[in-house]
Specification:
The chain is of the alpha/beta class and about 150 residues long. The chain contains five helices and seven strands. It is globular and about 45 Å long.
Length: about 150
């Protein structure tokens, strides 16, 4: 599979670091510093804006949080000697924003993390992941968090 552009949405989950390292390993395997990076990695953080606010509303706390999340992602990339670009977006829906960015940027794959939650006794993946699965124009690779030990009993 030839990759030119990998889109990695991050949200400040412990799983983000694993997802980023997965993306890094696809473009520049550990210990392989002689070879030039084979694909671009574009990292995005989506701030979901409530319907009650205008889409371009100023959300300083969310922006500050997003800056921290993206700075951490860039730091991890720097540690692995991988070039990335990072951008923060505001949208009504993270899923729609991720798919729109994949289309606009011509992504070959979206790599994202998932942390299933129990809702009424069933596992629930939220709204973002199912939307991306259904509508993404490219491959979608999901790294699901391991179930907590308390859930295994």
């Amino acid at each position: 599979m030839k990759l030119s552009l990998i889109l990695v949405p991050v949200k400040d989950l412990p799983l983000d670091e694993e997802v980023l390292h997965l993306a890094f390993s696809l473009v520049a395997p550990v210990g392989d510093r002689r070879n030039k990076q084979r694909a671009r990695i574009e990292i995005i953080h989506v701030i979901e804006v409530p319907q009650a606010l205008p889409l371009d509303a100023e959300l300083p706390e969310a922006v500050q949080h997003g800056e921290v999340v993206l700075a951490r992602a860039e730091q991890l990339a720097h540690q692995r000697d991988v070039e990335v670009s990072a951008e923060m977006l505001q949208a009504r829906s993270a899923g729609v924003a991720i798919v729109d960015e994949a289309v606009e940027r011509g992504a070959d794959i979206i790599i994202m993390g998932a942390r299933p939650r129990r809702l009424h006794g069933e596992y629930h993946m939220g709204n973002t992941l199912p939307y991306v699965f259904k509508n993404a124009p490219c491959r979608v690779l999901v790294n699901r968090a391991a179930r907590a030990e308390s859930e295994l009993k």
